[in-house]
Design a protein that fits this description.
By secondary structure, the chain is α/β, with parallel strands linked by helices. It contains 12 helices and 21 strands. It folds into 2 domains: about 1-325, ANL, N-terminal domain (Rossmann fold, 3-Layer(aba) Sandwich), CATH 3.40.50.12780; about 330-430, ANL, C-terminal domain (GMP Synthetase, Chain A, domain 3). The structure holds 5'-O-[hydroxy(phenylacetyl)phosphoryl]adenosine. 5'-O-[hydroxy(phenylacetyl)phosphoryl]adenosine binds next to α6, β7, β8 and β12.
Length: about 425
């Protein structure tokens, strides 16, 4: 039996969702225009009045918002409510530039918590479960987002936060945790540590995991499911829109249902900015049709994904997004060739190796050089130097033929690359351009 948090909405007929989206969009454009100077100026510039927006079908008349707009109005310039109505502020660090600050009213927190509860329910969580939240707590939305989701659902939250892995495992064992929530790379690390400690995962009451905040492959899913003896569910979100729970996987484990009654999705061509039809990969864009404090209009996520409205076996009718294929700003340009870290990961996995790797990019004599350090398994490590070198050449050839760019492969000792307790750092770009 499928487990829903809000069956009425999650399985609602399309016309019902559409009517809700239209009503909410109309309200939010007025809020954005009347209370955020940035939007008033943007609308005026293109001669658009909030009253031109009469239904969700008018969404493409609206201008886009990008991360830089939040930076330019740092920290609170895009907020649509006075200070006394805000109850929480989060921020996302990002790798370059100023951090992005986001704010929530009590109603916004309630919406976000409901979305996180929907995600937990879809991953089989019920009131009688213990949920260990091992996402970082703090300005990052992972920890507190899932935390409120568990409480709203009525299950029991164990706010472990990330780090101190042996202690995490002790809690998993001693408290009888049923569901683990953390990044997929941290889940891999917990799985490895459990093995090292000689614990049989079958002796743990753990049943499911809710993993997101970074890209992870189907192979990583298999690995985590095996090492922790669980079913692993994907969860997607970004601070600017809400945090974890914008979209979530169900028992079908093929794509994530978007809480489209609050976050209206579109896919656009990142070059032409034109909307693309369902099934085409492009940049994911969200409009926050339900939120008060930060009513972002057509926010460009930079995540590359596709949408589908095909019937899902779980009974949910909410639109689904694919796993993001990568971020357009994750893309490396190596000697003019576009390279996504996920493509490198794919090659490594295809060759039967674990996805423990790091890509280092340097510029030597005006030439881009890419080195991929990959961890060997303990069996490979015992091979002769010649055999290891042969394997390196084999991987170099596979990378060259898949990516159309050469890379130096460097096999490193087992367990020698840094493990992540949060989002994994896959690329070190040392080029100074
Ligand atoms: O990562 C929110 C979150 C926390 C989601 C916990 C899921 C679980 P930010 O730090 O703002 O927010 O980063 C958002 O992370 O644009 C994606 O590029 C990436 N991302 C998030 N979830 C997934 C996922 C949180 N399931 C950025 N798969 C997004 C792939 C993901 N990428």
């Amino acid at each position: 039996m499928e487990n829903y948090f809000n069956k009425e909405i999650e399985t609602a007929p399309r016309e019902y969702i559409k009517a809700k989206q239209s009503a909410r969009l109309i309200k939010m454009v007025h809020n954005a225009y009347n209370n955020v100077e940035f939007y008033k100026n943007k609308f005026d510039e293109i001669g658009l009045s909030p009253s031109d927006i009469k239904s969700i079908d008018d969404i493409s008349k609206l201008p886009f918002t990008v991360k830089q707009d939040l930076r330019d109005t740092y920290p609170f310039g895009m907020f649509a409510v006075p200070k006394e109505e805000l109850v929480r502020v989060h921020a996302s660090s990002g790798t370059t530039g100023k951090q992005t600050v986001v704010g929530y009213t009590q109603k916004d927190i309630d919406i976000w918590s409901e979305c996180a509860s929907r995600s937990l329910s879809a991953a089989s969580c019920t009131k009688s479960d213990y949920v260990q939240v091992s996402y970082g707590y703090g300005l990052f939305t992972g920890g507190l987002g899932l935390h409120y989701g568990v409480e709203t659902l009525g299950a029991t939250v164990i706010p472990a936060s990330s780090g101190n892995t042996k202690r995490q495992i002790q809690i998993l064992q001693d408290f009888g945790i049923n569901i683990l929530a953390c990044t997929p790379s941290y889940a891999m690390f917990i799985g490895e540590t459990i093995k090292e400690m000689g614990i049989d995962p079958k002796t743990l009451p753990l049943r499911a995991g809710i993993f997101g905040a970074e890209a992870w492959s189907e192979n990583m899913r298999k690995e985590i499911e095996k090492s922790l003896n669980i079913k692993a569910y994907d969860i997607y979100g970004l601070s600017e829109i809400a945090g974890p729970g914008v979209a979530y996987e169900c028992s079908e484990q093929s794509g994530m249902h978007i809480c489209e009654d609050y976050f209206y999705p579109e896919i656009i061509d990142p070059e032409t900015l034109q909307p693309l039809p369902d099934g085409s990969y492009g940049e994911l864009v969200f409009t926050c049709i339900g939120k008060e404090a930060l009513p972002l209009v057509r926010y460009r996520t930079r995540d590359i994904a596709k949408l589908t409205r095909e019937k899902c076996s779980c009974g949910r009718t909410l639109i689904k997004m694919s796993k993001p294929r990568g971020r357009s700003d994750d893309m490396l340009v190596i000697r003019g060739v576009n390279v996504f870290p996920s493509q490198v990961e794919h090659v490594i996995i295809e060759l039967g190796m674990q996805p423990n790797y790091q890509i280092i990019v340097e510029r030597k004599n005006n030439m881009d050089m890419m080195t991929v350090c990959i961890e060997m398994s303990s069996e490979m490590f015992s091979d002769s130097v010649r055999k290891i070198e042969e394997t390196e050449r084999k991987i170099e050839m596979a990378v060259q033929s898949t990516l159309s760019v050469s890379a130096k492969i460097h096999l490193v000792e087992p367990q020698s690359l840094p493990r992540s307790e949060g989002k994994a750092v896959r690329v070190i770009d040392k080029r100074e351009i």
